[in-house]
Amino acid sequence: MDKLMTPLEVAEILGVTKDTLSIWRCTGRYQLNYIKVGRLVMYQPGDVESFLNQRKHQHTSMPCSS
């Protein structure tokens, strides 16, 4: 099993705050899997990587509409 990551570590990787991750967990805004034991929240590195990979977009060469 990979070493688990703290919310602070994940927030730094994603470029958001720890509070933003908490909001995502509470509202279900994004499907970023986490592990919770009591009050402790941790993330598996593979889940964080999958989350990032799901958000990759390819350039379409089509102009963006405003």
SSE map:
Layout: H1 7-14, H2 18-27, E1 35-37, E2 40-42, H3 45-54
Antiparallel strand pairs: 1-2
**Element-by-element helix/strand order:** HHEEH
* Net shape: elongated
Instruction: Give the distance, in angstroms, between the N- and C-terminal Cα atoms.
Output: 45 Å
Count the beta strands.
Answer: 2
DSSP helix fraction:
40-55%
Number of domains: 1
Structural class category: mainly alpha
- The share of residues in extended strands comes to 5-15%
Uncertain regions: pLDDT < 50 for 5+ in a row? none
Report the average pLDDT across residues: 91
Characterize the largest beta sheet: strand count, sense, and whether it forms a barrel: 2 strands, antiparallel
- Gyration radius (Cα, Å) is 14 Å
Order of strands across the main sheet? 1-2
Number of helices: 3
